[in-house]
UniProtKB/TrEMBL annotation:
<dbReference type="InterPro" id="IPR008995">
    <property type="entry name" value="Mo/tungstate-bd_C_term_dom"/>
</dbReference>
<dbReference type="InterPro" id="IPR017871">
    <property type="entry name" value="ABC_transporter-like_CS"/>
</dbReference>
<dbReference type="GO" id="GO:0005524">
    <property type="term" value="F:ATP binding"/>
</dbReference>
<protein>
    <submittedName>
        <fullName>ABC transporter ATP-binding protein</fullName>
    </submittedName>
</protein>
<dbReference type="Pfam" id="PF00005">
    <property type="entry name" value="ABC_tran"/>
</dbReference>
<keyword id="KW-0813">Transport</keyword>
<dbReference type="InterPro" id="IPR003593">
    <property type="entry name" value="AAA+_ATPase"/>
</dbReference>
<dbReference type="InterPro" id="IPR003439">
    <property type="entry name" value="ABC_transporter-like_ATP-bd"/>
</dbReference>
<keyword id="KW-0067">ATP-binding</keyword>
<dbReference type="InterPro" id="IPR047641">
    <property type="entry name" value="ABC_transpr_MalK/UgpC-like"/>
</dbReference>
<dbReference type="InterPro" id="IPR027417">
    <property type="entry name" value="P-loop_NTPase"/>
</dbReference>
<feature type="domain" description="ABC transporter">
    <location>
        <begin position="4"/>
        <end position="242"/>
    </location>
</feature>
<comment type="similarity">
    <text>Belongs to the ABC transporter superfamily.</text>
</comment>
<dbReference type="InterPro" id="IPR012340">
    <property type="entry name" value="NA-bd_OB-fold"/>
</dbReference>
<dbReference type="InterPro" id="IPR013611">
    <property type="entry name" value="Transp-assoc_OB_typ2"/>
</dbReference>
<dbReference type="Pfam" id="PF08402">
    <property type="entry name" value="TOBE_2"/>
</dbReference>
<keyword id="KW-0547">Nucleotide-binding</keyword>
Length: 375
């Protein structure tokens, strides 16, 4: 199967408006499950639509394998139906007057496949997606999850090498979304196709993708594995966007007088030998280790800090703990029931390796990592 390359892709809808996509360079390798992730209006769906052939870029090239399908400067634009891509929209777009079987066979019929062969292909795909028993029903007789499977089956029946999915799970309830995530993972494993999946849901991206491309304001912020995106965010935007509980961020400048927490963190960085251009420091809520004040000092390698519990919020399998540290709000999360109560003063432990350092532009400072890991 071919790889996909987007080279210096731009999309403008008017000269006065900001570019929807700006100088996007992205390579999607053969067999990847790539998620385009970002907030509404970041350009992720526009990027997918340009790849699919539903929109034309203002500038740039798109290449699939050795085949150039778009070159603005070269005057090349292969029509959508000749790109060999499978596309599933956010809306299922099923024909209401056709049965499930007729919907699944629709593309095959357009390709003039013989009837018996169409039936065999449709039966195979419907069986894999567990909808063969609904073959004679109409879309309005199916649940949302079943309709989603029919839309996927119609696309998979054509055996595309590349599958494009535009927020296909957003119309489903929580239980069905979980089931369909597992279904998509299985489809990727069994069919071996390259998948490009648009979502604003970070947990969909984290659980489904082999790689994630985080976008903001039409620009690519970071491309990496889910672990890279979460553990080594390229900039402050990625750090704050990814994570069901936002990362705690301590700004080291901007106020007329440093707070005690800012002064403490600044002194820690000096002791660690970190660069002088650190503008802010972030740490994930799960990195904080909490203990009672009368407990022994933690084994964390940064000096412990005292804080006051504001509230404890159970979420089912985890507990979110809201804290006040030197008058600033931060959050911790734990997987075991805490034996604290609101108003308790507790000890907070933190390791240097869990710190994320950013400069004034919000860019991650990478050269401090070897220093931190040696502390």
């Amino acid at each position: 199967m071919p790889s996909i390359r987007l080279l210096h892709i731009e999309k403008s809808y008017s000269r006065s408006a900001p570019k929807a996509v700006e100088d996007l360079n992205l390579e999607i390798e053969d067999g990847d499950f790539l998620c385009l992730l970002g907030p509404s209006g970041c350009g992720k769906t526009t990027t997918l639509r340009m790849l699919a052939g539903l929109e034309d870029p203002t500038a740039g090239d798109i290449q699939i394998g050795d085949r150039m399908i778009v070159s603005v400067s070269g005057g090349i634009c292969v029509p959508a139906e000749k790109r060999g891509l499978g596309l599933v929209f956010q809306s299922y777009a099923l024909w209401p007057h056709m049965t499930v079987r007729e919907n699944v066979e629709f593309g095959l019929k357009l390709h003039n496949m013989p009837r018996d062969e169409r039936h065999a292909v449709a039966d195979e795909v419907m069986s894999k997606l567990a909808i063969v028993q609904y073959a004679d029903r109409y879309p309005n007789q199916l649940s949302g999850g079943q309709q989603q499977r029919v839309a996927l089956a119609r696309m998979l029946a054509l055996k595309p090498d590349i599958i494009l999915l535009d927020e296909p799970l957003s119309n489903l309830d929580a239980k069905l979304r979980l089931e369909m995530r597992a279904e998509l993972k299985r489809i990727h494993r069994e069919f071996g196709a390259t998948i490009v999946f648009v979502t604003h849901d970070q947990w969909e991206a984290m659980t489904l993708a082999s790689k994630i491309a985080v976008m903001s304001a039409g620009e690519l912020q970071q491309l990496g594995t889910p672990d890279d995106i979460y553990q080594r965010p390229a900039n402050r935007f990625v750090a704050e966007f990814v994570g069901s509980l936002p990362i705690n961020v301590i700004a080291l400048s901007g106020a007329e007088k440093a707070t005690p927490l800012q002064a403490w963190m600044a002194s820690v960085l000096v002791e660690l030998g970190s660069p002088v251009n650190v503008e802010c420091v972030g740490f994930r809520p799960e990195a904080l280790k909490l203990s009672h004040c009368d407990a022994a000092a933690s084994s964390q390698d940064l000096p412990d800090r005292l804080g006051t519990i504001i509230d404890i919020l159970p979420t089912g399998g985890n507990w979110i703990i809201e804290l006040s540290v030197d008058g600033e709000q931060i959050f911790a999360i734990t997987g075991s029931a805490p034996d604290f109560a609101s108003g308790d003063t507790i000890r907070l432990g933190l390791q240097a390796r869990d710190l994320h350092l950013f400069d004034a532009d919000g860019t991650r400072i990478n050269d401090v990592q070897p220093v931190l890991t040696q502390v």
